[in-house]
Amino acid sequence: xxxxxxxxxxxxxxxxxxxxxxxxxGYSQFGLEKKSTEQKSADAEEDSDQFDLDENDxxxxxxxxxxxxxxxxxxxxxxxxxxxxxxxxxxxTGFRLRAITKCTDIVIMITIPxxxxxxxxxxxxxxxxxxxxxxxxxxxxxxKHKNGGLQQMVVKFRExxxxxxxxxxxxxxxxxxxxxxxDPASIPKLFIPPTSKVPKAYKIYLDKSPNIESNNPQFKxxxxxxxxxxxxxxxxxxxxxxxxxxxxxxxxxNKDKIGNGAxxxxxxxxxxxxxxxxxxxxxxxxxxxxxRTVWVPGHCYVEFYMIDDxxxxxxxxxxxxxxxxxxxxPEMGPVLQKxxxxxxPELRGEQFRFVGEQVVGQSEGGRKPxxxxxxxxx
Length: 378
Description:
- By secondary structure, the protein is an alpha+beta fold.
- It has 2 domains: 82-178 and 344-377, Immunoglobulin-like, CATH 2.60.40; 186-327, C8orf32 fold (Roll), CATH 3.10.620.
- It contains 5 helices and 18 strands.
- Strands 7, 10, 11, 12, 13 and 14 form a 6-stranded antiparallel sheet that branches.
- Strand 10 and strand 11 form a beta hairpin.
- Helix 2 (217-227) packs across helix 5 and helix 3 (233-247) packs antiparallel against helix 5.
- The longest helix is centred in the first third of the chain and has 45 residues, at 2-46.
- The chain is globular, with a radius of gyration of 27 Å.
- The N and C termini lie far apart (86 Å).
């Protein structure tokens, strides 16, 4: 009898412990999962992708940025440009925003040095994030545009009281390498890709962009005239390069302005780096050659896209305004942006050739806050 009672007690305790253990584990996991799901939902509501930036936001405090979803071929072939000497600089990018009247739902976007697979000549490391404010500034996000080629420091906050100032800054270390031309033996192996061989992410560089009216018939006609009788695809692009340098005189009059488009620059036969670059890209795109603008502080140049006989693709730089540089470039300034056609739904779909600083929000009485942006080499 006693043995039977002891057996039943042991059995009861065993069942009870198993039952309790399962519910403890199950409840703990469910609680964590529920909390995680609620947090994601709250984060999604608070930081919704209003500006069509890539959903792969980097984690707060991360030193690196995730690659865009489709940044073209990842295979590194033997016929592309080479990387030369390097230089490392430190940059501080940020803002100060002073409210005149009450401001709400504020979003500030600032372009920062590019760091992804499409920019192998540059490596960016986050050194420090700083924020100083008397209001509820949210965390500093580092986000990529859906098309790639652009990364931004994004700060969102709900409210800034009258007379108060919000401030945030991002300090980055940029290691930049010069780009050397391909080996001479590789040039005969390089070709202008048929449209079907252009990666999806790069097809945007076959279409017109703000100030780059490549769909205008004059550029198609001009491309055919410039390249007539030239058999080498590399030679065709170099002929376009030389044509622009020989026929468009450098003039820095619009250096600090948006400047003229490719059509107007052709009429005037003069322009700054932005305008000369626009003409070169317009002629290339009219000839079905992918080409894009590369932006560095105070300057811009071009990259054009070719494939080798193995189908591997490469971007080659050239500098239309400045020292002769074709297929390689000695530029060591940090790359801020690659591309020249960016849109943001919150900004009513407006197209931007270069994406500068943006402030979006609401203010009482229509009195906008006073922004001060800075981008300083330390």
